[in-house]
Amino acid sequence: MAEILDRPRDPSLPVTSSEWVLCCRCRALTYGKRFVRDLCVCPECGWHARLTAQQRLEQLLDPRSAEQLAPAFDVDTAPPVYDPLGFVDTRPYPERLREARAVTGLDEAVVCARGTIGGHPVIAAVMDFRFLGGSLGCGVGELITQAAETALREEALLLLVTASGGARMQEGALSLMQMAKTSQALAQLDEAGVLVVSLITDPTYGGVAASFATLADVILAEPGARLGFAGPRVIEQTVRQKLPDGFQTAEFLFQRGFLDDVQPRAALRTTLARLLAVARPRLSQAVPRPAADPVIRRPHDLPPREPWEVVQLARHLDRPTTLDYIDYLVDGFHELHGDRVSGDCSALVGGPGWLHGVPVMVIGHQKGHTLQDRASRNFGMANPEGYRKAARLMRLAAKLRLPVITLIDTPGAYPGIAAEEHGQAIAIAENLRLMSQLPVPIIAVITGEGGSGGALALGVADRVLISANAMYSVISPEGCAAILWRCPEAAPQAAAALRLDARELLRLGVVDGVVPEPDGGAHHDPALAAAMLGDALAATLHELLPIDGAHLVRERRRRFRSFGADLRLGLEEVRP
Known about the structure:
Helix content: 25-40%
Largest sheet: 8 strands, mixed
Strand content: 15-25%
C-alpha cells in the first residue's frame, strides 16, 4: 500500500519523498515526487508543509553555497547534555535531548550556515521544529547569537528562519534570558548597519516571537504561518472569548501591519536576493553628471500660470502616481508593508530599489486612477499607520545608508475619526522630527497635490522639487474659500491668493527647483514625464551623494530654520 503522510496525525514529521502525500488542509492526495518538486506546497490549495532545517537551506541558499557553521550531530562526537535545573517531568530532560538528537541528527533546534542568495553573502540561522518543538533554550540562544556575531564580522545579511513553540521550560529562567541575549545581538547589527531579515514559518510562538523573530528589519512570512506570543488555546482559556477566523495567521497579521510581506515559498529566494542587492553600502557609487541641468531653478524661466488651472492639472485622474513612477524608474523595487504597531496604509507606499544604478528607498503617496482604485487607496490621504510605516522605512534607509526619495501627492492627511484616535497629529510630528535628523540624502518631489501637513510629513528634505503642474499649499483652495470667503465657489480666487503654483513656490524659496512636464501635463505622456523626473532625481543625487551625513543634517536644518527668519528680524527692528 502506498505510504501517506498525514500531517494532522503527526505534525512534527517533515515532508519526505513518500509515494503519496495527504494535504492536511484540503485532504487532496499528491504524488510525493511532485510534492517535493513543488517545494512541499500543495498544488490544490497552497498549503505549505513543514520543512526540516536542511530542506530550508537547500531551498533558500544558492546551490552548493551552504557551509554549515555548526556541524550536525554525530553519534560519536555528541556535545555534552546541558541540564542546569536537573529537570524531571515524565522523563528526565537529558533523555529528551538525546532522543531529539538521535531522531533529527542535529545538535540543537537551529542550524546555522554561511552561504549566498543571488550571489550575495548571507548568514542563515534556520530553526527545526522537530527538535523539541523548536524551543528556545541556551543552546539555541547561543547559536543565534553566534550567527549574528558572524554576520557582524563579515557584514553579511542575517537571515532568521523561525519555527518554535516558545521558550524551553526545562531550562527555566535561563531560557528566558536567551530572549534578551538574542535581542542584544540584533541591536549590535542595527548599530553596524547590517540588514536582518526574518522568515516566519509555521508555527512561531512565545519567546522566539517576542525576541529575534520580530526584531528584524524586514519580516516575511509563508502563507498560513502562525505567529504570536500566546497560543490560541491559552488566549481562549484566559479571556473566555472566541477568536477571529484566521487568528494569528500570516494573512491576519499582515492586515494589521506586523509583517512586510506574505510570500509563497517559490518566491522567497528571489525576494531575498532583491533585498540583499540594495542592502550593501554603496553610497560611494557615483551618479554621472548630467550634460545639462534638468531642473528649472529660476522663477522667471517659468511662464506665469493661472493658479486654478494648476490645481486642476495637479488633481487630474490620469496624472502618474507614485507606483507609476516607480514602474518607470526604479529597478528591483519591493514594496514593504506595515507600521509594526497597528496596521498598514494603502495610501502610502514604499520600499527599496535601484534608481540610475543607486540603491534608494522610495516612499510616496498613492492615489490610483479609477474611482475604485482611489477609494481603496483612500484618495491618497494617509492614516497614522501610513506615516509610521514611512518613518520605519526611513529609519531602515538610514541604517543601510540609502538615499531617501519621497513622492508627494495627497490632498492632505486623512481627517477621519479613526485617524484621530490612532494619533494622526503625533505621527506627522514624529516624521518631521525624524526627517530633520536622518544622516542620508533626502529628496522630496511634489508630483501632484501637496496638501498641508500630510504633504510636509514627507517633505523635510535636503532638496525639495516640484513638478511644473503640481501644487503645494497649507490648505486646499476650497477649504480656504469656505473659511475666509465663506463661499466654496471662491476656490479659484483662493488658489491665486495662496500662491500654490510652482513658479510662486520657487520664488518664495519653498522649493529648490521645478521638474518640467510634457506639454499639456504629465498625464499626456507619463513615460516622458517619468523620464524628466528621473533626470531631475539623478542630477540631485549626483549633487548630494558625496556629502557626508553630518553636513547633510546641518544644512537641512539650516534650510528650514531660515523660513520666516526675515520676518522675525523685521519685528525685532520695530520693537521698542
